[in-house]
């Protein structure tokens, strides 16, 4: 819905960028974990997610009036991703150790992805407005984090299960914020 809103209004007003950037890096990181683990569920879901998030970033960049901060944030996280790829590919020879460390790396990005929409928490409480939050993204985050938590539980994989639990918690916080401060009539959600 955020992409639809950008295309319809040709504007990025009231749309957060950071959650989608961290989600893209998160998808790319989990894609590497999926390849290392030979888990086709992780590979399929994260390939699709990375493609969609990259599309969102490109649309955001196109419609953003100030492109420099968007480009700088994107390049910074891309550099972190490339450095991580180099580290896991060239410096860690043992596959089991690589899987463990990549799982921890992915976990950190997953937690940052789930926490990033709360970056504007003080602004939301001060203004008593949830205009900068996306309700559809909150619903999707809740469903995705719950699904991944259950999938990790089924596989007995703490690297999938544990970092998705904050997604459930932060979604519940955002649901509460939407209940406490309903969006104004001018927001199309």
Automatic annotation (TrEMBL):
Chief place where the protein resides: membrane
Topology in membrane: Multi-pass membrane protein
Gene3D superfamilies listed in its UniProt record: 1.20.1280.290
Entry's Gene Ontology molecular function annotations: sugar transmembrane transporter activity
InterPro entries: SWEET (IPR047664), SWEET_rpt (IPR004316)
Cellular compartments annotated: Cell membrane; Golgi apparatus membrane
Transmembrane segments: 40-63, 70-90, 102-121, 133-153, 159-179
Keyword Hydrolase tagged: no
One GO cellular component term noted in the UniProt record for this chain: plasma membrane
Protein origin, superkingdom: Eukaryota
Alphabetical UniProt keywords: Cell membrane, Golgi apparatus, Membrane, Repeat, Sugar transport, Transmembrane, Transmembrane helix, Transport
PANTHER family: RAG1-ACTIVATING PROTEIN 1, SUGAR TRANSPORTER SWEET1
Similarity comment: Belongs to the SWEET sugar transporter family.
Protein name as catalogued: Sugar transporter SWEET1
Species whose genome carries this gene: Galbula dea
């Amino acid at each position: 819905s955020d992409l639809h809103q950008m295309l319809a209004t040709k504007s990025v007003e009231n749309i957060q960028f950071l959650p989608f950037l961290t989600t893209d890096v998160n998808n790319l990181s989990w894609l590497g974990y999926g390849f290392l683990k030979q888990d086709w569920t992780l590979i399929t879901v994260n390939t699709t997610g990375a493609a969609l998030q990259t599309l969102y970033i490109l649309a955001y960049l196109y419609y953003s009036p100030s492109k420099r901060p968007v480009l700088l944030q994107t390049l910074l996280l891309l550099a972190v991703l490339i450095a991580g790829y180099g580290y896991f590919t060239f410096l860690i020879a043992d596959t089991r150790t690589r899987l463990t460390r990549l799982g921890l790396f992915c976990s950190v990005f997953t937690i940052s992805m789930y926490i990033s929409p709360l970056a504007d928490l003080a602004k939301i409480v001060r203004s008593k407005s949830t205009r900068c939050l996306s309700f559809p993204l909150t619903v999707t985050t809740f469903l995705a984090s719950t699904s991944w938590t259950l999938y990790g539980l089924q596989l007995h994989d703490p690297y999938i299960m544990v970092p998705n639990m904050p997604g459930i918690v932060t979604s519940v916080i955002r649901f509460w914020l939407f209940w406490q401060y309903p969006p104004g009539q001018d927001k199309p959600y």
